[in-house]
Design brief:
Strand order of the largest sheet: 7-6-8-9
Structural class: alpha+beta
Shape: globular
Helix content: 25-40%
Number of domains: 2
Number of strands: 9
Radius of gyration: 17 Å
Strand content: 15-25%
Order of helices and strands: EHEEEEHEEHEHEH
Distance between the termini: 25 Å
Length: 169
């Protein structure tokens, strides 16, 4: 599985640009993905904060993760502009009958595929060897471009999960 998403992140955006990641509970179909990419592009073209243009970027990664980014060096993202991005995501949820706000659903790469696992089942998955310390994990808690580039897809042992769960050495 090709995990080199970094080339798709705008180089010109400040390293401290804000990032929001929305993980879908399923893979979007190709027609859905094309429609969503168009929605995201249209949104970022018209994204405003108190009437000023937000330097924004949005894309669908791996057919399952919507990433929004705002370079706040020119225009900061206000509550209203954040609300407009959340409305966009909620509309996508409704239009495509998906869940993009379930923070209890975790994503891992298992056998070259993205596998979703409820947090409540992680202990079972660890005990039965489905997930181990070296399994790649999508750390959707990243908040900046720099964190996205360096800490979005990381081994479980480098994530917050390592502090909560025991992994055999």
């Amino acid at each position: 599985m090709n995990l080199h998403f970094q080339d798709l992140i705008p180089e010109e955006f400040n390293i401290n640009s804000r990032v929001w990641i929305y993980q879908c509970n399923r893979l979007f179909t190709l027609p859905e993905a094309l429609e969503i990419e168009e929605l995201l592009e249209n949104f970022t073209k018209s994204w405003l904060s108190h009437g000023a243009k937000v330097t924004g970027y949005a894309n669908l990664f791996f057919g399952q993760f919507i990433i929004l980014m705002a370079d706040e060096t020119a225009t900061g993202v206000s509550g209203c502009s954040t609300d407009s991005s959340v409305r966009l995501i909620k509309n996508i949820e409704q239009d495509y009958n998906v869940n993009l706000f379930d923070r209890q659903m975790l994503a891992f790469i298992v056998k070259e595929r993205i596998q979703l696992l409820p947090l409540s089942q992680l202990t079972y998955a660890i005990e039965n060897g489905f997930i181990d310390a070296d399994t790649l994990y999508f750390n959707n808690t990243v908040e900046t471009k720099q964190e996205l580039l360096n800490y979005w897809i990381i081994p479980v042992k480098e994530s917050w999960l390592a502090k909560r769960f025991s992994f055999a050495s």
